Amino acid sequence: MSNTASDQLHKLIKALSRPEKRYFKVYTGRHQTEEGNNYQRLFDAIDKMDEYDEEYLKRKFGNELFMKQLSISKARLYDQILKSLNSFHANSSIDAELKKLIHSAEILYKKTLYAQSQKLLKTARKLAIKFEKHTTLLEILMWEKKLIEKDNYTEVNEEELEIIVEQDRLTLEKIKNFSEFWHIKSRLFYILNRKGKARSANELSGFKSIIDNVLLNSESAALYFETKYLYHHIYSAYYFGIDDYENSYKHLKKNVELIEENIEQFKEEPNTYFSVLTNAIYVGTRIKQYPEAFAYLRKLRDLPEKFALNRNEDLDIKLFSSSFSIETTIYIMLGEFEKGIKLIPIIEEGFKLYGDRINNVRRAYLFFNIAILYLGEKNYSEAIRWTNKLLNDIDIDKSQDLYCFGQLLNLIIHLELDNRQLVPYALTSTERYLKSRNRVYKFETVILNFIKKISKIRDLQKADEIYVKLLNDINAITADNFEKTALEYFDFLSWAESKVYKRDFKELVRKKAEIK
Length: 516
Hints:
It is built from 27 helices and no strands. Helices cover 76% and strands 0% of the residues. Helix 11 (201-211) packs antiparallel against helix 12 and helix 22 (400-416) runs parallel beside helix 24. The protein is an all-alpha fold. It is globular, with a radius of gyration of 29 Å. It has helices spanning 3-15, 18-29, 34-47, 54-61, 65-68, 70-88, 94-110, 114-130, 134-150, 158-195, 201-211, 225-241, 245-261, 263-266, 270-286, 290-306, 313-334, 337-341, 344-354, 360-376, 380-393, 400-416, 423-436, 442-454, 460-477, 492-500, 505-513. The model is unreliable at 1-5 (pLDDT under 50).
């Protein structure tokens, strides 16, 4: 194993849960040889490392025989871990159960125990049909065809052959249906994840060119529950991307209902339900559906217990980062900054517990929200600390919108702190970033021009005039659907109004959040 593989071994061991580690010891203990014991010793030594250190292994085990060919020993250990995981998870999912049934049927077939093989395949086929496992169903049908052929078609009639042909046709059609929907989805999400929402007519045209597909003319084109999910998933994302939250929310609610009606099929993919709930909460808050948003948040947090899902670290991390990102976002939109701040100690404990295992973009959103919460409570020193963490401690280059508005928020907080010496430096850095990423839209230009002017003014009357111009400029450009997206990251409009009308920023946000 190369050094890269050695690092992979360390990552694999660190990724194991406690039950998986215990099982590995039992698994290797079944083969009480010197080699098996060495696997366990090497495993334990690597497990204790926070970071992989091969020199430490050489010092610890010295000239022992297995250390003379360490790369081979590590490769074999890696293989043993995978084998133990396969054994541990043999019945942990429908896919695993199907693979086990097919493999057993294959063994029986090769031993010429055809009736027993047929019985297992029949069980597997029913399971695959129930859970819509179409690619696996093709493999099952292939083995059933082998059983038919081995008797030269003497054990099958014409009607049964027609049923097999129809099953093949329908299965292949559903596989094709999924692939076509997935292709549309992947093109749309590639743009959304790379560039964010449409901010120009050209970007809007790009979205429309993807959605203009005959497959999306009617939900009836989706042949089963998973492609029905993709149908609504695509439309919810499309409408989100063009700022039509009402229609986006309708499709998100459809998918919540679809999943809850087919919970057995989705049970092994909690991330799907998880994502739909988080998106429904976010979009729901944008159209002031706050009671529904909090109801969905409760569903999100109850997800593992309510649907008896197997807890794992990946799910726990997503529950932590997404639920707190959502909850802080809602409090920001409601102007209830003090409630959001009460969550920060819990969030910081989560950062300590999960560390870098939290996705960079998820961490960045939390940093961004925490900065806004402190800004809303006029604790500007804490606000700037969190924007600095966002801009300097996380690599989120792919999330261009978030990083861009993190830069702008940072400039606003510097103004609140009256950091006149630092503002020009921060401004230059922001301008350089926007130009290098081709992100200088009208809104960003307005904010940058405002910062340039206000940072040089000492006269209060002239400063008031500049704030009035800022407010007018924001009102003018956010009438453009492409530009008003900027206000979703931070309420620049209410902030400008607070300066012009000498009113509390929090009070203005709360007033705006009132349900009419």
